[in-house]
Amino acid sequence: MARNKKILLVEDEERLISNLADKLRAEGYDVSTALDGETGLNMTRSASYDLIVLDIMLPGLDGLSLCRMIRSDNKTSNIPIIMLTARGTEVDKIVGLESGANDYIVKPFGLGEFLARVRVQMRQPAPEPGLKQDELSSGNLRLNLTGRRVFKGDSEVKLTNKEYMLLAVFMRNKRAVLSRDFLITNVWGEDYLIGESDKRTVDVHIRWLREKIEENPSKPERISTVRGVGYRFEG
Ligand code: CA
Fold first, then answer.
1. Residue 71 sits in the same domain as residue 142
2. What pLDDT does residue 124 have?
3. Are residues 141 and 38 in the same domain?
């Protein structure tokens, strides 16, 4: 019998956390809760979870720091994270995603929306056990890290250096919304000055990459545009 999926909720609003926990348990999930960041961190170190839901505003260790700590620990770095935020500004959302979160929900939100987001994260397949360490794969796309070669099905896709690096960043951050600033930092480097024209450079390289990996580049399905924020690699 398959074990129940385990979810950790870290949130200091007791009413909200008990509502969310009840709803998730009714859906058959095994739910643990923590009312502050330190407790949440200790729990991620002593048990394994299939999903972590983190509030940004927490007493003591805040949700963003906790998210980064979960991401930087090898034992927990692959666990999907959904962030809850009461701060609705775009910048805060992006910061939340760049800390390594897979998704975020702005408060107030409905339980139906919350469950839908949880299900999306739970559907992400676990990494294939037989997959070689030097390879990233998604659907019929395979990226060989040591040879810096990319294959779509059986045929090799010739990418420029920047296109290759963009694709690698996308494949390592599947389903996460990545801002242009994040892509520039990770592909062009920390010291690259970010101005409006540089952001357009990202758009141009994304267009070239789409030409090579999308079935229909004018209706991209692998790399989708997230208006006002950036891009998301769908798979
Ligand atoms: Ca809170």
1. no
2. 56
3. no
Which residue has better confidence, 150 or 186?
A: 150
Residue 55 C-alpha to ligand 1 middle, in angstroms?
6
| Residue 211 and residue 109 share a domain | no
Ligand 1 midpoint to CA 46 (Å): 23
CA of residue 146 to ligand 1 center, whole Å = 43
Q: Is the pTM of this model over 0.70?
A: no
Secondary structure of the chain in the HEC alphabet?
Answer: CCCCCEEEEECCCHHHHHHHHHHHHHCCCEEEEECCHHHHHHHHHHCCCCEEEEECCCCCCCHHHHHHHHHHCCCCCCCCEEEEECCCCHHHHHHHHHCCCCEEEECCCCHHHHHHHHHHHHHCCCCCCCCCCCEEEECCEEEECCCCEEEECCEEECCCHHHHHHHHHHHHCCCCEEEHHHHHHHHHCCCCCCCHHHHHHHHHHHHHHHHHHCCCCCCCCCEEEECCCEEEECC
Indicate if 151 and 116 belong to the same structural domain. no
Among residues 122, 149, 172, which one ends one of the domains?
A: 122
